[in-house]
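Methods — Computational structure assignment.
A single polypeptide chain was analysed. Its primary sequence is given first, followed by the predicted tertiary structure written as structure tokens.
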Amino acid sequence: MKILEIKNVHKIYNSSEVKVHAVNGVSLDFEKGEFAAIVGPSGSGKTTLLNMIGGLDTPSDGEIIVDQTNLAGLKSSALIDFRMRNIGFVFQSYNLIPVLTAKENVEFIMSLQKWNKKERDDRTFELLKAVGLEDRINSRPSKLSGGQQQRVAVARALASKPKFVLADEPTANLDSKSTETLLDIMEQLNKEEGITFIFSTHDARVVKKARRVITLEDGKVISDERKN
């Protein structure tokens, strides 16, 4: 079942000196349950493409359709609501709220969505246990290692049961052990919950784990390979 369609998407940035074609005619489909990596050199368009898929940026041309909804057809407030309910994000810099505990960070989106307290508590504990942090539920980000913060970020991304999770260089600031732990957790959650993961990455360890590898160069897809 297709949950994401990218149709001939372009992103052009204009400045007084130069026009930059950051994404140049990309067309891709993603099925439910994929574990995919978008790779390519710096400047190839990986992050720009991920931001457009997530509704954080707008294509100059083309369509991005999430679960049969064209993101371009949504007004700003509707797009924010749609993004909150359907798309999870994991960022390179964790982006946790520093004054909130691990539990409070994970349940934040659920609170905005008006989940009741028992639902929030149950889902938060389930996810923090899944990422191995049930004993750090009341710790603030400053008391957690980088790897632990990124595991909280993964739990937060999954909290509202999104259609898919976008992870932009999620291992860039982690050591090897933390990276392996994080990737094992995300792979397990992908298989158990059927949530699609799409990574933007330079990390060979992420590419090794991915079951589909899409390579961009100069804003274009130059290869799209699925592993057996």
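Note: The chain is about 35% helix and 30% strand.
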